[in-house]
Amino acid sequence: MMKITERVRGIEYAIRDVLVAAKEVEKKGKKILYFNIGDPVAYGFDTPDYVKRALFEATNKGLNGYADSQGVLPLREAVCEREKRLNGVDLAPNDVMVTSGTAEAINFLLGALIEPGDELLLPGPSYPQYLSVTKFYGGKAVTYRNIEEEGWKPDIDDLRKKISKKTRAIVLINPNNPTGAHLDEKCVKEFVDVAAEHKLLLISDEIYDQIVYDRKSVGTAAVAKDVPVLVSNGMSKIYIAPGWRIGWMYFHHTNGELNELKDALMRVARIRLSANQPCQHAAATALRGPQDHIPKFVNELKRRRDAMVKRLNEIPGLSCIMPQGAFYAFPKVAVDGKRWKDDKDFVLDLVKETGVLFVYGSGFDPTYGSNHFRTVTLPPVEMINEAMDKLDKYMRQKK
Ligand SMILES: Cc1ncc(COP(=O)(O)O)c(C=O)c1O
Hints:
Radius of gyration: 21 Å
Number of helices: 14
Mean pLDDT: 96
Helix content: 40-55%
Strand order of the largest sheet: 2-9-8-7-6-3-4-5
Order of helices and strands: HHEHHEHEHEEHEHEHEEHHHEEEHEEEH
Distance between the termini: 48 Å
Shape: globular
Low-confidence stretches: none
Strand content: 15-25%
CATH superfamily of the largest domain: Type I PLP-dependent aspartate aminotransferase-like (Major domain)
Bound molecules: pyridoxal-5'-phosphate
Number of strands: 15
CATH architecture of the largest domain: 3-Layer(aba) Sandwich
């Protein structure tokens, strides 16, 4: 028997794990309506033309070799320009590092921060990769409460209570996946204050920063001023190119406080050679280009969000807070232990009976995510209505 390490044994990623159950149902001939994956391309949105052309041009120019491990200079410069334009943040290209998707940034970062037994403070619920990667490195993900009735706003008192000697960093995700919570400046400032008070690294995941419905987003670095913060972002959501696997992180510090961490991450980056070179050049063009696809994209997403949340709230046994950012909703389901054992049982039974596939809420946090499920709000309204009709019928039958 091959020996498999303990650290991979417990690895889970609910968003893709549910597919296994869906494929089984599909094999029996049932049509699956996929509402599980946060990929705009899968629902008919397309990468802007000027961005696609830039990729062709980069490959045509022969930019097909390995790239610098830190990332090509044009993209690092374009990230600096974007931060200045959107958030008024001054940043040097040397403080930017390009990764194969934000996912790789998360992996590098936690690899450098987490020793066995260390704790990472995360929003509860939050994007599952943070939970799994923390566990992979032997650490413990500690989630702070997010208050559903207040639009899933983080509970800063709970965050403070959960800081311990083992805490290595605080993560905020703004807007958050899976709740769609969009934090305002006051709330971000509270995070900055807590991090400064306890001398903890603040990690700000801003991958949905321009997918917001109520007001413009605030960059944590702009609020943080001289408090060190590490910010991640990427091409997957706003530029509709998740398959390119291009992300970046930047180190915002005034007196080189993050230099040691940056050097460590550079060593890690070198052992994986580089991120995809032509896609990096095209990403630089994307960030510097017209940006006029963004309001169109967000307007259409808003229409789909509104249609979905309205329908969800009309179904017996479900209630859903209106998400203010990203493209997810996180409805509560009345799981009473009789009709369904728990939220996972609900999701698996639903896909078996109706073909509608969501992700169970406990996959985003066993504490604050249970009795919920996550749906994407990305599909066209016709597909939303088809799924909602099935869900409605199913819930009425289960009553
Ligand atoms: C909050 C959050 N961070 C990071 C990622 C990973 O994105 P990428 O495609 O850049 O790896 C996702 C993907 O859904 C996400 O929702």
